[in-house]
Design brief:
This protein is of the alpha/beta class. It contains 8 helices and 9 strands. The longest helix is centred in the N-terminal third of the chain and has 29 residues.
Amino acid sequence: MIIIKQSIAHMVTKFTPYLIALLALLMTASVPSPRPITVYLIGDSTIANKLTSAYPETGWGMPFKFFFDSTVTVDNRAKNGRSTRTFLSENLWQPVADALKEGDYVFIQFGHNDESKEKVDRYTAPDAYKQNLVRFITETRARKATPILLTPVSRRKFVDGKVIETHPAYSPLVIEVAKSQGVSLIDLDAKSRELYQSFGEESSKLLFLHLKPGEHPNYPDGKEDNTHFSELGARKIAQIILAEIKAQKLALAERITKPVKK
């Protein structure tokens, strides 16, 4: 009897690693891989992909695409100079709406051009702005995709060392629509101002397209732009959005890339 028990114990010990491996394989096989999804970005020049001739100007959508694993495709449809009105009238939205599938996301950030009364080709009155945002939301949900609203990212503006609000009329409209429609909101206006303040009035220039004459061949006369980002600024803004995705526990957070163990 003792010999039999020892033999059984020996067999169990011998085959345990194989049993564990088989169990792990069966468990892996039983869990379906996440379905591939697309994250669409719609908005203006603060998000958009940039031409080489514009470097080092960088839209925050450019670094944003590197945050996710292979199941996520980030499709950046944002365009320079677009408002909610012109994004619709130029047929930039309809191809997105037609391509949407269940599980996809649409990140919606407009305001810089909608609020520009001096630029009549893109200006959008407040009521129309809200209606356009609701249309993006409604048509996204109709395809069983998830809309995410973002307040317009702040411009860089300081008074007496304190960063001040640059979208006082249109950011509240986004918040209003988010509440009325029950949509997830990233208050990028407020979060970006916190970022600029943390850098301070002078150092925050590093986040934007601030170049001295002769510093870069694309801008031989220099550049002082407090709206469009440098590579550093775009990455910092993208990191704010990533942090909000995690903080709000969006399902998309489960698809953030994980560091490779070496």
